[in-house]
Structures are given as C-alpha cells and as structure tokens.
Amino acid sequence: MRNGSPAGFRISGHAGVSEEGTDIVCAAVSSAAYMAANTVTDVIGVPAEVSEGSGTMSLMLPDEKSAASCSTLLRGFRLHMAALQEQYPKNIKLTDTEV
Fold it and tell me: What confidence tens digit (pLDDT) does each residue in 39-71 have?
C-alpha cells in the first residue's frame, strides 16, 4: 500500500498441495498474478516493474498516479487472493505492507 492505495504485489514460494507443475493452488495464484500484471502493463499501459523468478513474481507501480489508476484492479486481485486463502489456509498466507 502507498498512501492507502495498492502499490503492487509480491508472491513467493509454492503452495505445497501437490507436486510442482500439478499444484492447483499454485496454478490459481500464478494465473491471477499474471492476469493482474498483464492488465496493468498491456491494457492500462502503466510501466510497472514486473519481475519473476523460480517461485516468485512481483509487480511494483512506479508512482501514486499509477497506483490510483490501478487501484480497482489490485484491490480485486487482493480479494481473489483472500478468497483462495480462505479455501487453503495452510497453503496461502497474505501479508499487507506499506511502502
């Protein structure tokens, strides 16, 4: 969060529901994260910093103006992650931080 608006997200690790590559929880989280990142960069057109690695992905918006234009999308992403956490509380942990 940046001044009350979502400024991005970071996901890391594997859900551990099943083997890597067949884990439906990992697939759900990854799919939602890629959809959010692609919408920010390719549909809304914000030059966000997106990085990905083995078991990690992050998106950081460059400034408050960008955060305002992406707020609805990122709040929806957060709600989706919270719903997945309710279904899989042993496999997903959400943490909100201020930047």
Answer: 999 999 999 999 999 889 999 999 999 999 999
For residue 20, the enclosing domain spans 8-87
List the CATH number of the domain containing 83.
3.30.70.1490
pTM of the predicted model, to two decimals?
A: 0.90
Domain count, the chain: 1
Contact of 28 with 84, CB cutoff 8 Å: yes
Q: Is residue 35 part of a domain?
A: yes
Q: Which residues of 34-69 are buried (b: 16+ CB within 10 A; e: fewer)?
A: eebbebbbeeeebebebeeeeeebbbbbeeeebbee
In this structure, is residue 95 part of a structural domain? no
Do the beta carbons of residue 29 and residue 92 sit within 8 Å? yes
Give dist(CA 86, CA 88) in Å, integer.
6
Closest to 55 in 3D by CA, of 86, 12, 4? 12
